[in-house]
Write a structure and sequence with these properties.
- Helix content is 52%, strand content 14%.
- The protein is α/β, with parallel strands linked by helices.
- The protein has one domain: 3-Layer(aba) Sandwich (Rossmann fold), CATH 3.40.50.
- α6 links the parallel β7 and β8.
Length: 249
């Protein structure tokens, strides 16, 4: 079995690659920081193939898929992504556009291209790493929350299309809450609740996609947030999100 994992140089992506390699999967580990990727190769040897690719550039995403045509990928993991905190009128536009290209455009391109391959052979798995943020509006992290809304919505829509087509291809969205990764340093925030480890997140994500779950939420606390969203007015939920994000700054 062979998996392609973006964002494999750190955090959840790295630990997903490690978990799969430990189970004997061949891994195409994709990231911008090749030095981090080679740390994976040092641990798992020939099971890891390191590929440098900046998925924030659409042409590099398309080239990545083209190069992978001879690899017969069984699992695509879209994990590359980052966040940014601040009032929308004050945050840097270029950084936000890079975020949209990484969190949304790259996921869109790679999902579409590899999905077409998987449908043709009627097998394969796609795991799109989103966030519990994908179910909310997020003042102070407006763009990040919006990108994850896109990922969740796209994934669930594709899943229903596959079901209607009678396809054996599986697609899942992984929607964790706080995870102990480099995310906070990049987004310039700090967790207001205790995060789970990226290793635990990786295990939950892989278990979910292999079980064919539509949305994978790794903890009861986060599941309860998703449940209570159905019971409360959207304006109240958005106010709560603002105060939650404010505590992170």
């Amino acid at each position: 079995m062979k998996a392609l994992v973006t964002g494999a140089s750190s955090g959840i992506g790295r630990d997903i690659a490690r978990e799969l390699a430990a189970e004997g999967w061949e891994i195409i580990a994709v990231a911008r920081r090749t030095d981090r990727l080679h740390e994976l190769k040092d641990d798992f040897g020939d099971l890891i193939t390191c590929v440098r690719c900046d998925v924030s550039h659409p042409e590099e995403c398309k080239k990545l898929h083209e190069v992978m045509q001879e690899e017969d990928i069984d699992l695509l993991v879209n994990c590359a992504g980052f966040g940014l905190c601040g009032f929308f009128d004050e945050t840097d536009m270029d950084t936000e556009l890079e975020m949209i290209h990484t969190n949304v455009v790259a996921v869109h391109i790679l999902t579409k291209l590899f999905l077409q391959d998987f449908i043709a052979k009627d097998s394969g798995y796609i795991l799109n790493v989103a966030s519990i943020a994908g179910f909310f509006s997020g003042p102070l992290m407006a763009t990040y929350y919006a990108t994850k809304n896109y990922v969740v919505s796209l994934t669930c829509a594709i899943r229903e299309e596959l079901k209607q087509q009678g396809s054996n291809v599986q697609i899942s969205a992984f929607c964790p809450g706080p995870v102990a990764t480099e995310f906070n340093d990049v987004a310039n925030v700090k967790f207001s609740t205790t995060p789970i480890s990226s290793k635990k997140a990786a295990k939950k994500a892989l278990h979910g996609v292999m079980k064919g779950k539509a949305v994978v939420v790794p903890s009861l606390k986060i599941k309860s947030l998703k449940f209570f969203k159905r019971l409360l007015p959207d304006t109240f939920i958005t106010q709560m999100c603002y105060h939650f994000q404010k505590k992170k700054q």
